[in-house]
Design goal:
The chain is of the alpha+beta class. The protein is about 35% helix and about 25% strand. A hairpin with a 5-residue loop joins strand 7 and strand 8.
Length: about 425
């Protein structure tokens, strides 16, 4: 019965895949961005000054003026990010140098601690004995609160210059244990994990889209295509990067030469550049793209293009950060910086990204889905004389791999459904 249920779910998701890609080039309403009315804003501020004067109230000090300016910008662009000079310098340095590696894949939980959904082999997390399905309770001296964001957790996990990092882990039974992660440095490379999943699927996890990322991703797709894989998964959760040119290299696998991939415009709608596919499309695997709220930069640009400009890819997860390389640091009179969306990205299907929203996945992973648990006995109950077939062993191995990761489980469900429907089958 469990197997039939899983097959039914996979077929339903595969049907969604086919529906999405039957109309991949259809029009999508453009995001409506707020237009600043300078005269109206000035009049509003003047009215505030008049009320202060009439009631003999003190004028705002410099700190209040700075807060007013930031509030004004945030009202127009809710996703704006404010940084001081040190934070901006740290951000630029992180984009260009090494960083700590841990081997953890985390998901943000609204009503729980951050959940560990995967632990890469031969990494500091694996060495420390951390298991999928556990929760991060404390990092260093910082107790994590229910609903802690991935941005907060990532910042704590990567902070400091010493490799040793004390953490507390909570297992599913509520037992807590303290341990020390011995972090290792690595160059910021694109693909941090490449894996052959059970049931003939390929999986790759990207830390970001950096120089050379396009060739790395395409090489994996070509290798898996030649090996007869049924599909591929590109994990862009928490991924960033600044190598815009790499996006077209990957997207060109899924669309004919000279097809428009995306256009960058200024905020007045004037075209800055149009990027087209520069290589002929070739038969390739269906690609599932995993994203979350921390997917940003060139990784978010790639997700937007794969979602709205090509056929053969499906985006799964949660809405992305809203910064597909459209923001620029602008210095404020206070000395702080605002990362403002000075450009607009337009995908081939008409979807516009101007800072007010991120990429909307084709398959959304809800908070309820993150709490899904699948019990399976260690030893299956079989009729006398019956043994598991090789196919059943593969199915079980896949369930074990995806048990704690709702994103990955949805992606494999779609690929299994496509396989059952004969998608890509050679005749």
């Amino acid at each position: 019965m469990n197997r039939l249920w899983n097959q039914g779910r996979a077929l339903c998701l595969a049907g969604l895949w086919l529906a999405v890609h039957a109309s991949a080039q259809s029009d999508e309403p453009a995001a409506v961005e707020p237009a600043a009315d300078a005269a109206g804003l000035c009049a509003t501020i003047a009215e505030g000054e008049r009320l202060l004067a009439e009631n003999h109230l003190p004028a705002p000090d410099d700190a209040a003026k700075g807060a007013l300016l930031e509030a004004l910008l945030r009202a127009s662009e809710p996703t704006v990010v404010f940084l001081d000079e040190e934070e901006l310098a740290s951000r630029c340095q992180q984009e260009a140098t090494q960083e700590w590696t841990l081997g953890l894949t985390l998901v943000e939980m609204e009503d729980s601690l951050p959940k560990i959904v995967a632990v890469a082999a031969e990494t500091p997390a694996a060495t420390a004995g951390i298991q999928p399905g556990e929760f991060v309770q404390k990092i260093g001296d910082q107790d994590l609160a229910t609903g802690a964001t991935l941005k907060q957790v990532r910042s704590l996990l990567l902070a400091g210059e010493e490799p040793e990092l004390a953490v507390s882990i909570l297992d599913p039974t509520g037992q807590s244990r303290a341990l020390t992660l011995v972090r290792t440095r690595r160059e910021r490379t694109a693909l941090t994990n490449i894996e052959d999943l059970p049931v003939n699927m390929g999986y790759m996890r990207a830390a970001g889209i950096f120089t050379g990322a396009g060739a790395e991703i395409v090489a994996c797709l070509d290798k898996w295509q030649a090996a007869g894989k049924i599909g591929a998964i590109l994990d862009l959760r928490e991924a960033d990067g600044t190598a815009e040119d790499e996006v077209a290299i990957v997207a060109a696998k899924f669309t004919p030469r000279d097809d428009v991939l995306y256009t960058m415009n200024d905020r007045q709608g004037h075209e800055i550049k149009t990027v087209k596919a520069t290589a002929p499309a070739a038969p390739t695997l269906p690609l599932m793209v995993l994203v979350d709220g921390e997917t940003c930069g060139a990784a978010e640009l790639l997700a937007a293009v794969l979602s709205g400009s090509v056929q053969g890819a499906m985006v799964i997860g949660q809405e992305t950060a809203g910064d597909p390389l459209i923001r620029e640091a602008k210095q404020l009179p206070t000395g702080r910086y605002a990362l403002l969306a000075t450009r607009q990205l337009k995908a081939a299907n008409g979807a516009v990204y101007a800072g007010g929203r991120g990429v909307q996945p084709d398959v959304v992973i809800s908070s309820a889905a993150l709490h899904e648990t699948f019990y399976e006995p260690e030893s299956p109950v079989l009729r006398k004389g019956k043994t598991l077939s090789e196919e059943e062993k593969e199915d079980r191995a896949l369930r074990d791999r995806t048990r704690h990761d709702a994103y990955l489980r949805r992606a494999t469900d779609v690929l299994l459904g496509l396989k059952a429907l004969g998608y890509g089958r050679q005749h």
